[in-house]
Design brief:
76% helix, 2 strands, 582 residues, mainly alpha, globular, 3% strand
Length: 582
């Protein structure tokens, strides 16, 4: 209860900060931290519209997860350790979002990674430990590039302070080539943290952790950190068209790629994991096409419906002890309240009008339509269609097939899910063109850099967004509820294509064979060379020692032969010397 009370105070404090930010605008403070020579490094905080939004979002989601965990984790033997790690994780994310300089961001960026490592491996079983190690190592790949980018940026600007960096960038004192190099390094760090291709495979495996952890991880903390970071340093990316296109391309391709895997995945939490990868890809696509508001708006709505979806399936998993869709479908219909909450989350994520996800997805499609290449727009449309199909596939498989009778859900679980369900329905109305655009007006007006507004969605885009979601719903209903094309579906499940998609296009297999086994073979080769050198080193003294012993024997036992050998050796040396001089 102490942890829940502290979480409530944290959320309450974020509301107070929000009210102050609305009243006085941006504010902050820094104090000296340490110095190296004449260079002074500071630590402090900065409050503007973007990070106060993240403060409220992270603290609110943490409070909901803490409430839910009271029931979900009550039988866990390491409950105190769980809450300790959860609070470390949340603290690190909160500290990251208010950091006014890149050095401070980097410190808490790494602490967020540490917190996720501890939480993913919370359950004392081998698969959880392997998943935690995988998450830690794969995100370290991105973090190395991230650190290189920070060093290069400091070398080019002489500072880690964000407002000073923005001034240097916007004044044109750094060439586009340097900014592109720095941006690529930082973007690789984001790819690792936000689980984008090709550093995405750790996130589905991270589902070995407790389900409340998965909800927080996907809703507002670790994977959201990458999207927040790009938005927070957006002027660096705006300065390079190459960076923007690369971001949009990787985001768009990752979104489609992950959606196809979610369409066939058999583990309920892994379906949601791939859906997160896909939705984060759409956010990157939006940022890459100057859709700043659309990306952050979708980040907010995604936090509500994704947390709701995870907590809903968490109740099913807690009841059954399984994450298999085939097993869970036997009990899904027994819980009408969970059925309703999951349906709300699935509808919002699919973009069903007029839930929150519909409005944020429309904003993203608008940005890509007006500012991106046509192929990326239609890729986003196809990804959105697949999203509706796989979410309603999951809904029909989980909640149509079991008996209607079953147990009630505890209040500690139902209460946070109810609040998240309300958010999944209504939070999107903060930014609509018929109820008002408070969100976009507030977000763009209070940032430390200027943001160009995106054209309002046209009637074509609004109708297209509705058509996408409803088409996905109908297709999913026909395939997975009515079981049309059932013989062809069974045949498809036996095909090589199905197996390829189900195995995640064998990305992990390639990593295993090329990098893991390749590294092992390389290590064995280095070990062979090492042993060979050791044998040579040990052979030389033995040989010299043997020659010396023979020399002693020769000298004492047969002095005439010893003298003859010495004379022959001397003559040989003289002959070689004369021949070399001649």
């Amino acid at each position: 209860m102490v942890s829940i009370f502290v979480s409530f105070l944290s959320f309450l404090f974020s509301i107070i900060v929000f009210i102050k930010q609305l009243t006085v605008g941006s504010f902050g403070q820094s104090i000296p931290w340490f110095s190296v020579g004449d260079i002074q490094f500071t630590i402090g905080y900065e409050i503007h519209s973007l990070n106060v939004l993240m403060l409220m979002l992270v603290s609110f989601m943490n409070l909901m997860i803490q409430l839910y965990s009271k029931e979900y984790m009550k039988d866990d033997e390491r409950i105190k350790a769980y809450y300790g790690k959860l609070n470390l994780f949340t603290f690190s994310m909160l500290a990251l979002v208010i950091s006014p300089n890149l050095l401070q961001i980097y410190v808490f960026w790494e602490l967020v990674g540490l917190g996720s490592f501890l939480l993913i491996g919370h359950y004392n079983r081998e698969r959880a430990k392997r998943a935690a190690n995988k998450a830690f190592l794969m995100t370290r790949i991105g973090d190395v590039a991230f650190l290189v980018g920070l060093i290069l940026l400091f070398w080019g600007t002489g500072t880690f302070e964000l407002h000073e960096i923005f001034h240097v960038v916007q004044s044109g004192n750094l060439s586009e080539g340097i900014l592109t190099t720095v941006g690529f390094c930082l973007f690789i760090g984001v790819i690792g943290k936000s689980a984008q291709f090709p550093l995405h495979t750790w996130l589905p495996d991270a589902m070995e952790g407790p389900t409340p952890v998965s909800a927080l991880l996907h809703a507002a903390t670790m994977v959201a950190a990458g999207i927040y970071f790009i938005a927070n340093i957006y002027p660096i990316f705006l300065a390079s068209s190459t960076l923007l296109f690369t971001m949009a391309l990787i985001g768009g391709c990752t979104g489609f790629f992950a959606a196809t895997i979610a369409l066939v995945e058999k583990d309920v939490k892994r379906v949601l994991a791939y859906s997160t990868i896909s939705q984060l890809g759409l956010m990157l696509l939006s940022l890459g096409t100057i859709g700043f508001v659309g990306a952050i708006f979708h980040l907010m709505t995604h936090a509500f419906f994704k947390a709701l979806l995870f907590l809903s399936v968490g109740r099913l998993i807690k009841y059954s002890g399984s994450q298999s869709i085939e097993h869970l479908r036997e009990i899904g219909k027994r819980m009408p309240v969970i059925h309703l909450f999951f349906l709300i989350g699935a509808m919002s994520m699919s973009g069903i009008p007029f839930l929150s996800g519909y409005f944020s997805k429309e904003e993203i499609l608008s940005a890509v339509f007006f500012n991106g290449p046509p192929f990326l727009f239609w890729l986003a449309v196809l990804t959105s269609l697949l999203t509706a199909i796989y979410m309603f596939r999951l809904y029909f498989l989980l909640f149509f097939g079991g008996a209607k009778t079953g147990g009630l859900s505890p209040l500690w679980m139902v209460f946070p899910m109810g609040i998240l369900a309300a958010g999944s329905i209504f939070i999107g109305y903060l930014n609509t063109h018929f109820f008002g655009t408070f969100f976009s007006d507030w977000l763009t007006k209070n940032m430390p850099f200027s943001i160009e507004p995106v054209s309002a969605p046209t009637s074509f885009l609004s109708l297209l967004t509705i058509l996408i979601s409803l088409t996905g719903l109908v297709i999913s209903y026909l395939l997975f509820r009515r079981e049309w094309l059932a013989p062809k579906m069974r045949s498809y499940r036996m095909s090589r294509l199905y197996r390829t998609v189900l195995e995640g296009y064998y990305v992990d297999v390639v990593y295993d064979r090329v990098f893991i086994k390749g590294t092992i073979q390389f290590a064995k080769g280095i070990g062979f060379v090492d042993r060979f050198v050791q044998k040579i080193i040990s052979f030389l003294p033995k040989t010299i020692n043997g020659i010396a012993k023979q020399e002693v024997k020769l000298r004492w036992k047969n002095p005439q032969r010893y003298g003859l050998v010495a004379v022959i050796g001397l003559l040989l040396i003289l002959t070689i010397s004369i021949w070399s001089v001649g």
